[in-house]
Design goal:
Subcellular location: Cell membrane
Structural class: alpha+beta
Number of helices: 24
Number of domains: 4
Strand content: 15-25%
Number of strands: 28
Protein name: ABC transporter permease
Largest sheet: 14 strands, mixed
Keywords: Cell membrane, Membrane, Transmembrane, Transmembrane helix
Mean pLDDT: 83
Shape: elongated
Pfam families: FtsX (PF02687), MacB_PCD (PF12704)
GO molecular function, one term: transmembrane transporter activity
Helix content: 40-55%
Distance between the termini: 36 Å
């Protein structure tokens, strides 16, 4: 029986090549989409899930009331970790961490004590860090590696670079830094961090090293550190949150901040907050693509069933002949189901091959490093899809056709109910509603990304590079010379850059200007509302900082070397002046962290955060020392390559020649803020195209079935004098009506979805009518092109063929 059915399967492929091709292309395309999205979703869901104590590992966040609502920040007070451990029995371990984000992403120089230097991502952590987090050690004891102040734990890659071996315990390295620099003993080596870890670093230093240089971290008024705690098993997180919420008031009842505990592994996907509560994050993309995968798979599967049904309607006489020679209904049903399962199997094999082939390109678009591994859940899913789709596609025609009488079978007659005409039309509407929504969504996302690209930020980000100055020293090739020099002469280095041909201007600064800044409530001024703390973003920059970025000065002046007391001055943007309710601000005095400062200038508003938020209130202070050790250089347009070469030479002449010169373009940093949105837009574009392709295949399948079902009607119309063109219009108009209904349903839904997405941006494009009309016209045009070929073919058939049995 199996051998016989296999022969029939391959024979039918030969007889119906076009139908087979449409079936396989549609099904395999849907499976390719579903597989790609599944791999992406599984990777997203796996981030930070590898920690063995993950269900008990939580991060403490801080909620701060502001005039614009509650701001949630992961920066907390330095003493918090130890206080929670001491005062809450639910806490069994805690760790204070200052990761690389505190240093604005700066990479530091580590040396083997000689002339070899390597850039390193460093962080500080409390002694229990490696007990709480699962970062396995190749060498060292998790409980002891951070027990001593001069200890450092490095990655196996860094150990190999510095010492040409991973067994580096006991060896000494040099950190070249003016504040934290010195000799450290390697106490442990950790394995290569998994790619699905949100924390990525090369070296971990003892937290006490940082505290020794920054006493503010012992102060409950200062929020700089990240705080992590490990809870006892079965601790109720909701109850724990209630207990710690107002804990800060036990230190000072006037502190307005409250605390919020969130599981560490949830932070990656659930990292957005509104008024102090979790309000989405990357999980929205996971849900979006999961829904897209499900819709595409449903469309592909039902299309497959439709095509199988349409194809079955051409095999009525075959069934009649088989029944006339004694074939049983059971064997006929088995034949149809087996053919369908084999067809789906072919589609799945092709889909797996295509996914394997295109995975590198998909990784390039998605920014992932996915692999097609034979995960048990993935295999079970594939088997499930194969059986369900195969059985569903074969069962309906099998049940109906195997029940036909011999007479009807030999005559090739179908009952009117065969094919579920209403259900088929409903499917077409569903498919094109989805297509219209996807078309509109892709257009809106791309238009918003273009808007962001062209948005005036209040400063000129083009032709600007920035880099970390590292640590300055003489060109002697000795690490100790670098360390001893310090960074107090940073202005001298900046002046050398200003004098370099091709350089328009240069300055030093603390932050990177791109969603990377400090915030504080430590400002007081005359008339301030004492009931509510106002939050300000802070930027520390050197001379010519405003000029280098080409910000526009509204009133007053910028920092100048002509005046001797500039470090006692302060500059605000318009939003900050508005928040303070200050009129005629120039010359007025405010208090910053206990020190009086005179307002000397106001710049026009500029964006340093993502456009999801309105312009932040910002103040700028002068810093010409190593505290603001990043360097920003504006170059003359069209001279980038030559000027970069000159800047590199100045850098290497001033620093040790072995020190690597690494820089960033400011406009690229800006683009990186929206990397997730751009990747989502790119993926959506491809998935939308594939969904439309599958929808068109479904429409084509319905056109085939309709033509077959109305063959006699078409023949009669032609005999009575209708032209082929009239018949074509008649057949096409039915599908045009379905697509128009789809457009009328899809456009309002697309509008609501687009409006909701854009509402997340403080600055966004207006929703223009042509976005929606264009999508509707495009859907209709695609549908008519798809149906037209089949309608023309049916209209030009010989009417004798349709009336032969009459």
């Amino acid at each position: 029986m199996l051998k016989h059915n296999l022969k029939l399967f391959f024979r039918n492929i030969g007889k119906h090549k076009s139908t087979f091709l449409i079936n396989v292309v549609g099904m395999s395309t849907g499976l390719v989409c579903a597989l790609f999205i599944t791999l992406w979703v599984l990777d997203e869901l796996s981030v930070d899930r590898f920690h063995e104590k993950g269900d008990r590992l939580v991060q403490i966040l801080q909620n701060l009331p502001t005039p614009n609502g509650i701001e949630t920040d992961e920066a907390t007070q330095g003493p918090l970790a130890s206080a929670l451990l001491d005062e809450f029995p639910e806490v069994v371990q805690s760790a204070t961490v200052l990761d690389n984000s505190w240093f604005e992403g700066e990479k530091f120089l580590l040396s083997d004590g000689g002339n070899r230097f390597f850039k390193s991502v460093n962080q500080f952590a409390g002694k229990d860090y490696f007990n709480m987090f699962t970062f396995p050690l190749l060498y060292g004891n998790p409980s002891e590696v951070l027990a001593h102040t001069n200890s450092v734990v490095i990655s196996e890659e860094m150990a190999q670079k510095l010492f040409k071996t991973t067994d580096a315990v006991g060896k000494t390295l040099e950190w070249l830094h003016d504040e934290y620099g010195g000799s450290y003993t390697v106490s442990g080596v950790f394995k290569k961090l998994p790619k699905n870890s949100s924390a990525q670093f090369d070296a971990v230093f003892n937290m006490e090293v940082f505290i020794a240089q920054n006493e503010d971290l012992r102060d409950w008024r200062d929020s700089d550190a990240k705080t992590y705690v490990l809870l006892k098993p079965n601790t109720d997180l909701t109850a724990f949150n209630t207990k710690i919420k107002n804990f800060l008031k036990t230190r000072n009842e006037n502190f307005p901040e409250t605390y919020l505990a969130q599981r560490y592994y949830e932070r990656y996907l659930h990292g957005n907050y509104e008024n102090g509560v979790v309000a989405g994050g990357r999980i929205q993309y996971v849900r979006l693509f999961s829904l897209i995968a499900l819709l595409i798979l449903i469309i592909a599967c039902v299309n497959f069933i439709n095509m199988a049904t349409a194809k079955a309607s051409t095999r009525i006489k075959e069934i009649g002949v088989k029944k006339s020679v004694g074939a049983k209904r059971k064997s006929l049903m088995l034949q149809f189901v087996m053919e369908s399962i084999m067809m789906v199997t072919v589609a799945i094999v092709i889909a797996l091959f295509v996914v394997k082939l295109l995975l590198p390109q998909f990784n390039g678009i998605s920014g992932k490093e996915l692999t097609l591994s034979f995960d048990p859940n993935l295999i079970l899913g594939i088997v499930f899809i194969t059986l369900i789709t195969g059985i569903a596609a074969g069962a309906y025609p099998a049940l109906y056709l195997s029940g036909l009488s011999v007479l009807n079978g030999l005559k090739g007659q179908l009952l009117k109910s065969f094919g579920g005409n209403f259900a088929r039309k409903g499917l077409v509407i569903f498919q094109f509603v989805t297509s219209v929504i996807l078309i509109v969504s892709v257009v809106i996302v791309y238009k918003q990304m273009d808007f962001i690209q062209d948005k005036n930020l209040g400063f000129n980000r083009n032709n600007v590079i920035w880099f970390s100055s590292g640590v300055m020293g003489a060109d002697t090739g000795k690490a100790e010379d670098v360390k001893e020099m310090g960074t107090t002469d940073i202005e001298n280095f900046v002046q050398l850059l200003r004098n370099t041909p091709g350089v328009v201007n240069a300055s030093n600064f603390r932050h990177t200007m791109m969603a990377d800044f400090g915030t504080t409530t430590g400002l007081d001024w005359s008339g301030k509302d004492t009931e509510q703390d106002a939050l300000f973003a802070q930027i520390a920059g050197g001379y010519d900082f405003i000029e280098t970025l080409q910000m526009e000065l509204k009133e007053g002046r910028t920092y100048s070397k002509k005046f001797k007391t500039e470090k006692e001055k302060i500059i605000f943007n318009e939003a900050a002046i508005a928040q303070m309710g200050m009129k005629d601000p120039i010359g007025k005095v405010i208090n910053l962290w206990g020190e009086d400062r005179e307002v000397i200038g106001v710049v026009k508003d500029f964006h340093i955060d993502r456009l999801y938020k309105k312009v932040l209130p910002v103040f700028m202070t002068l810093s010409d020392t190593g505290f603001a050790s990043n360097i920003m250089v504006r170059m003359e347009p069209g001279t980038t390559t030559a000027t970069l070469g000159r800047i590199k030479k100045v850098y290497q002449d001033y620093f040790l020649s072995e020190m690597p010169f690494e820089f960033n373009f400011l406009d690229e940093n800006y683009q990186s803020l929206y990397e997730s949105e751009r990747r989502v837009a790119a993926l959506s574009k491809y998935f939308a195209g594939l969904a439309i392709l599958i929808s068109c295949l479904g429409l084509f399948g319905l056109a085939i079935f309709t033509s077959e079902r109305r063959k006699k009607e078409i023949s009669i119309r032609k005999v009575l004098g209708q032209s082929a063109a009239q018949v074509t219009v008649m057949l096409s108009s039915e599908f045009a009506k379905l697509v128009l209904i789809s457009v009328l349903i899809g456009l309002p839904i697309a509008y609501l979805l687009a409006k909701n997405w854009l509402s997340g941006f403080a600055y966004h494009i207006p929703l223009q009518l042509w976005y929606f009309l264009g999508a509707g016209i495009a859907a209709l045009a695609i549908a008519m092109l798809t149906v037209g070929s089949q309608a023309i073919r049916a209209a030009n058939n010989n009417p004798v063929d349709g009336l032969r049995d009459e």
